[in-house]
């Protein structure tokens, strides 16, 4: 029977758990896993890890939560809790009354630009105190990548219109923010509705006036303006400003050196506001600086905690609204679904903060989980990633889990292969590491197996999104050939996490039995590339039919942001307060399923396999090709460092595959003849591995693939890469051509 678009093909359901009704910041410091029973076993091995427990004990207050490798500064759990409440006290005074809750139990988000706090910073020591302080005061936090250019930043500013902004001091922070504000002020931001554009310009004019007064007023020694006269605060982390060091948490300079020289430094907010009843008093944890208000379940679900900006792999960035309940759900599922993690009484966790905290992954997998579990997070001295420096940090700080992106997995695999060839491989460099977590994009199966065989460390693929939070995760402790259950996990992104349901729905465009048969065959070949029996693996559960991945979870977003607030009382066909109805209803069904736009399949063991991205599917001569599959195939070539496929239109408007390839030998980039010879070798390679309609017609040899910070390939931007577009030659006559496997 032919499947119709939207037909449900398969479902997998994760474990269930009840969540506490409270503010997100309150949850972070509530020792939420202190009494959590250690009964959840790995779906792949069915074993319970005894170290995954708090033994009923709270996190020791003096536990180091953050350590700055640049300054040696350290922040304990106790100090972070106290400072976040001090920040809440000042933020509450600056922002004003919280948005009221009407007592209704519905799906209408409670959010307003008036109570929005923007954080545009690299990973740094003050980050947690600022965001937790804002959440404690029931403000919405919007985190922004500090590397965005003024035009990109202006789009976000125009829609978010924050009441307070925290950015880096100097050219990389406040100067870039000022340039973005000028663009909003001058009406240079496109893709805005007239109503939002008008509000944005009015907001920009007001903020520019306040900020200009901050920037130009002359202050004598000891003469600081009241915080009430400020709306933009800086953190001294920029490489071009005063040495680029923020001394927060440093035992050498507890007062904060940057605060002494900059009246707009964020650390002034740790002191009581002028006129506050605690002004001039010594407050402590025994007398908290701010009382966090309790939330009912209904308010917890409705009150927006965070606006993140989608990665934009298929178009302009969209604001994603996440509630206190949704964020807590994501944190909770992370700990309860990953028994390989250790509690404080069993050695605890030590992680490196490479993933940006402006991103969903960095916030929900590293920063906030570190507080809830008592883990120590190391902030590298150099924010720019270098694999050898990273591995040095792993050894120096005895890291327990590596959180890295797919490109880093490939680099690690290449380093291992090269060191083995030279006889210099030291398998003990990862001695303290129990597992490697990789998310953000599909990862090469060959790289996973190579790393485990050489280093004995499993690479756990994870799946999630800004809109749905953490969804699934592989959990095996090893990938030994004798561990059949764990072997079955390689190549997949694991089983659904706690309170997560995953469904596979038929895809529009793959309606005929013949097309469905071809797509399933592609997946079987992908599974068999890991050494498993593809047909047997996929047959038991609805015949392993591929389709669009739908997710229903407590961590699902409230919806896409309209650019308005719930206090604007705007109700149109496209906007309902803070909700963009058009984009939201196109993505979330009435019964709460989020349509991810990713193509996948559930196997007989409930493990999810990612096949591709629906909007990125390339249709060649009537056949649909997932570019991620070609990325993986070419990524395994011994001469290739990185690769990305994209569809391009020929003169006759037919779609063809163009392959962007980064060679291991950079000398190839310098000579056209060498490139042509390289393309010939790549062509001969692909015809032995893929059916004819998956052979690229074009190749572009380049020095890098454009990706976002989490490692996702920005396919819509690949055309901007400079290079010669080579037409693929005919394969050598003697090369065997792969035929379609028969089911």
From TrEMBL:
Supply the PROSITE patterns for this chain.
Answer: AMP_BINDING
Family named by the database record: Belongs to the ATP-dependent AMP-binding enzyme family.
Kindly provide the name given to this protein in its UniProt entry: Acetyl-CoA synthetase-like protein
Q: What is the lineage of its organism?
A: Eukaryota, Fungi, Dikarya, Basidiomycota, Ustilaginomycotina
User: Which InterPro entries does the record associate with it?
Assistant: AMP-bd_C (IPR025110), AMP-bd_C_sf (IPR045851), AMP-binding_CS (IPR020845), AMP-dep_synth/lig_dom (IPR000873), ANL_N_sf (IPR042099)
Print the keywords alphabetically: Ligase
Sequence ranges assigned to domain AMP-binding enzyme C-terminal in this UniProt record: 629-712
Coiled-coil regions, chain positions: none
What residue stretches are annotated with the AMP-dependent synthetase/ligase domain? 113-505
Q: Which Pfam families match?
A: AMP-binding, AMP-binding_C
User: What are the recorded GO MF terms, alphabetically?
Assistant: CoA-ligase activity
| Gene3D superfamilies for the chain | 3.30.300.30, N-terminal domain of ligase-like (3.40.50.12780)
Q: Which GO terms describe its biological process?
A: secondary metabolic process
């Amino acid at each position: 029977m032919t499947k119709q678009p939207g037909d449900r093909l398969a479902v997998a359901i994760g474990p269930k758990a009840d969540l506490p009704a409270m503010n997100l910041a309150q949850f972070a410091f509530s020792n939420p896993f202190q009494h959590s029973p250690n009964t959840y076993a790995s779906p792949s091995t069915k074993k319970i890890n005894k170290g995954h427990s708090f033994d009923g004990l709270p996190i020791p207050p003096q536990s180091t939560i953050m350590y700055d490798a640049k300054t040696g500064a350290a922040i304990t759990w106790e100090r972070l809790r106290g400072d976040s409440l001090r920040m809440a006290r000042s933020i509450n005074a600056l922002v004003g009354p919280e948005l009221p809750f009407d007592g209704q139990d519905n799906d209408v988000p409670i959010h307003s630009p008036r109570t929005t706090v923007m954080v545009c910073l690299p990973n740094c020591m003050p980050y947690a105190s600022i965001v937790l302080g804002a959440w404690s005061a029931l403000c919405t936090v919007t985190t922004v990548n500090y590397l965005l250019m003024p035009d990109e930043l202006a789009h976000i500013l125009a829609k978010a219109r924050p009441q307070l902004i925290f950015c880096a001091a100097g050219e990389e922070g406040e100067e870039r923010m000022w340039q973005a504000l000028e663009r909003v002020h001058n009406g240079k931001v496109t893709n805005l509705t007239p109503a939002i554009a008008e509000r944005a310009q009015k907001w920009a004019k007001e903020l520019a006036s306040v900020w200009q007064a901050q920037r130009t007023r002359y202050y004598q020694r000891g003469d600081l303006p009241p915080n009430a006269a400020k709306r933009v605060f800086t953190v001294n982390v920029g490489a071009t400003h005063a040495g680029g060091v923020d001394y927060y948490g440093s035992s050498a300079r507890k007062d904060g050196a940057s605060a002494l020289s900059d009246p707009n430094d964020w650390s002034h907010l740790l002191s009581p506001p002028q006129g506050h009843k605690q002004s001039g008093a010594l407050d402590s944890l025994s007398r908290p600086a701010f009382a966090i208000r309790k939330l009912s379940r209904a308010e917890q679900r409705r009150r927006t905690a965070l606006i993140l900006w989608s990665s934009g792999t298929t178009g302009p960035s969209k604001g994603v609204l996440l509630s206190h309940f949704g964020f807590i759900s994501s944190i909770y599922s992370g700990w309860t679904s990953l028994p390989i993690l250790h509690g404080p009484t069993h050695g605890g966790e030590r992680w490196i903060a490479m993933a940006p905290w402006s991103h969903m992954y960095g916030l929900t997998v590293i920063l906030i989980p570190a507080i809830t579990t008592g883990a120590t997070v190391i902030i590298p001295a150099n924010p720019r990633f270098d694999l050898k420096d990273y591995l040095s940090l792993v050894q120096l700080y005895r890291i327990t889990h590596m959180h890295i992106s797919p490109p880093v997995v490939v680099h690690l695999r290449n380093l291992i292969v090269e060191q083995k060839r030279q006889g210099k491989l030291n398998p003990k460099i990862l001695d303290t590491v129990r597992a490697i977590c990789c998310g953000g994009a599909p990862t090469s199966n060959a790289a996973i197996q190579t790393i485990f065989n050489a280093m004995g460390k499993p690479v756990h693929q994870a799946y999630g999104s800004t809109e749905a939070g953490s969804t699934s995760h592989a959990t095996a402790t090893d990938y030994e050939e004798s561990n059949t259950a764990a072997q079955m996990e390689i190549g997949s992104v694991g089983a659904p996490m706690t309170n997560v349901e995953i469904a596979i729905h038929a895809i529009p465009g793959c309606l005929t039995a013949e097309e469905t048969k071809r797509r399933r065959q592609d997946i079987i070949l992908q599974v068999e590339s890991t050494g498993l029996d593809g047909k047997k693996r996929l047959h038991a559960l609805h015949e392993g039919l591929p389709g669009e991945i739908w997710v229903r979870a407590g961590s699902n977003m409230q919806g896409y942001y309209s650019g308005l607030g719930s206090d604007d009382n705007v109700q149109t066909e496209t906007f309902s307060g803070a909700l963009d109805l058009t984009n939201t209803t196109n993505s979330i069904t009435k019964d709460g399923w989020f349509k991810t736009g990713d193509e996948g399949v559930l196997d007989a063991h409930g493990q999810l396999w990612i096949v591709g991205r629906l909007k990125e599917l390339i249709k060649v001569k009537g056949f649909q090709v997932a570019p991620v599959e070609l990325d993986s195939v070419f990524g395994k070539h011994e001469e290739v460092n990185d690769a990305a496929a994209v569809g391009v239109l020929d003169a006759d408007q037919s779609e063809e595959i163009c392959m962007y390839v980064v060679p291991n030998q950079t000398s190839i980039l310098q000579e056209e003849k060498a490139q042509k010879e390289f393309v010939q070798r790549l062509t001969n390679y692909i015809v032995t591995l893929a059916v004819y309609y998956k052979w690229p017609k074009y190749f572009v040899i380049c020095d890098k693939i454009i990706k976002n910070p989490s490692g996702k390939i920005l396919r819509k931007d690949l055309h901007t890469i400079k290079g010669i577009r080579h037409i693929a030659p005919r394969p050598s006559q003697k090369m065997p051509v792969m035929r379609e496997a028969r089911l």
